[in-house]
Amino acid sequence: MADTSNDSKLGRYLAVGVAAAGAACAATSLYWNLHFRGTSWLIGSFDLGPSLYGMSSAPSTPAAGKGGKKGKKKKKGGSSGHLNGMDTREPSTASTGPSAGGGPAVYETKRAVNEYLQFHFGDPNDVLPYRDGPHDALRFTQRCADLCAKHTKSVKTSRTEPAGLALDIGCAVGGATFELAKHFAIVEGLDYSRAFITAARLMKERGSLRYTCFREGEVTRKLTGAVNDRVDRARVSFREGDACVLPRSLLGGGGSGSDFDAFGRHDAVLAANLLCRLPDPAAFLAQCARLLRPGGVLVLVSPYSWLEAWTPKDRWLGGYYESASASEDGGSAEGSGSASPAPNAPYRRSFDAIEAALTSAEGGFDLVEQSDLPFLIKEHDRKFQWGVSHCTVWRRRRVPNA
């Protein structure tokens, strides 16, 4: 009779070895899937190389809009076109710009990245080829950056090299961040969208990126957006962050020893088309005093397009009717007021809430000027989003809590 004990042991060893090897392969596959899934569609979209490897994951805090746009948890499961909350499907023809009501998830889609690359870096003749169009709405990011420089004293006193430190909160794909580098020695852009920050970092590395724009229906073409040749891209950096809960490294540190937390270290802070894309805009405004050094400039630009997909209604800064009781008592309304307001009923203006917050003793700012700032986002060859943002410029008081 044959001795089968050794064969039996060998069989068991082989079975265990096969199982262990299978588990190791599965673990390795899972690791690489988790490591790269947040940027996989960008690698395909922009033909990216190893520059994306090792990027940090998105912040876990739910908040922040166009520079911080996460207010609600993403649904689990669902379409196979979603990986880690990022839409990897082919672009649709749906609107994704500032007036869209899709909510924070739109800023992680291919369509949004392509639209914003064109918005920030597209050739004006490609963006608006029509003679009778609103040409004064082009070069929006450049005009925002120029406003920061116009009111910043360190820029005016520097006659040779750019001087000072600037911060672009809600930088999206980085157009205004690069424009600020024409005027400031060091510029940092911050946005909550991983897709936007990835594109901004690639733009810094390469100086240009190809993007897809729609002609009509599903017909597209490829164009190239580029950073202005006058910009020293080495001055610029980008990071993911929450505008409603700003990183501590950006706050404080610019005041005297006794008032260390009262001032920040930035000469200029830009927040362009950000406020109405935040889940808690008041929380952002409350932090601004600690971003700027004495005499520093805060430039707020917003169309006040309040939508519940982005900001809970009880956190809107304005754009709702005062309730009858609040109007009678002379108080303020915390909600949308009457469902059927009378004609010409009083309503809460966003600027009034911003002014009250920033000019208070805790706010620490004085209003310098206000103006209208048009912008234009192209959706396809014959459809555009034209808006006029309200631009307000604020100067940080030199005496804290005065």
Automatic annotation (TrEMBL):
Residues 58-104 are annotated as: Disordered. The keyword Amino-acid biosynthesis does not apply. The chain crosses the membrane at residues 12-32. InterPro entries: Methyltransf_12, SAM-dependent_MTases_sf. Pfam families: Methyltransf_12 (PF08242). Keywords: Membrane, Transmembrane, Transmembrane helix. Residues 167-298 form the Methyltransferase type domain. Residues 67-77 have a biased composition (Basic residues). Gene3D superfamilies: Vaccinia Virus protein VP39. Coiled coil: none annotated. This is Methyltransferase type 12 domain-containing protein. It comes from Micromonas commoda (strain RCC299 / NOUM17 / CCMP2709) (Picoplanktonic green alga).
